[in-house]
Amino acid sequence: MQLDRLEAFHKALGDKNRLRIVAILQRGARAGGELAEQLQLKHATVSHHLHKLKDVGLVYQRRDRNTIYYHLHERRLEQMAVSVTKIGLRTDPELFVSEEEKAAVLQSFLHPDGTVKALPAKHKKRLVVLAYLSEQLTEKTYTEAEMNQVLAAWYEDTASLRRELIMNHFFYREKGYYERNPKEMWVI
């Protein structure tokens, strides 16, 4: 699954017009018409390329009244580019955790109601607890206040938990929003 996502990512960037769109969006959000004008392409062509970039999660859109602005997911771009070097992590025996080990870790570090007793000191076990928590967070995007509110129901030290979720690539933060990485990007 991870290889399929990487392949789709690189195919999406395998077009010079899409690379030009990414370069423009790195400088800030743009409306579709602005992109078409800057690239000297038809609006339908730009829409096609934006659709391809949205499909792999590199571009998202936000509406401001009657105008849709396209933004670059810079963090996602960095993560996908770097993930090529991390393909082998899923099969790394040091990070592999069997279903039995996962169950034992969760039993040790969770209260009966599912809240977190403590974050494990060992990285491998911490990843199990973080994956569990990430699965409980059903929304794709959170503001920092929303993230704190949700995490407070699971663990008292929300700042540490947010930091751990980001450092271990379960979530990423961009422009004040916390967005969950797709499950297939998790190293667990």
Automatic annotation (TrEMBL):
GO MF assignments: DNA binding; DNA-binding transcription factor activity
**UniProt keyword terms in alphabetical order:** DNA-binding, Transcription, Transcription regulation
One Pfam family, please name it.
Answer: HTH_20
Q: InterPro entries under this entry? A: ArsR-like_HTH, DUF2087, HTH_ArsR_DNA-bd_dom, HTH_MetalResp_TranReg, WH-like_DNA-bd_sf, WH_DNA-bd_sf
The segment(s) forming the HTH arsR-type domain are 1-92
Please verify whether the record's keywords include Transcription. Answer: yes
SMART domains referenced in this protein's UniProt entry, alphabetically: HTH_ARSR
- Name by which UniProt lists this protein: ArsR family transcriptional regulator
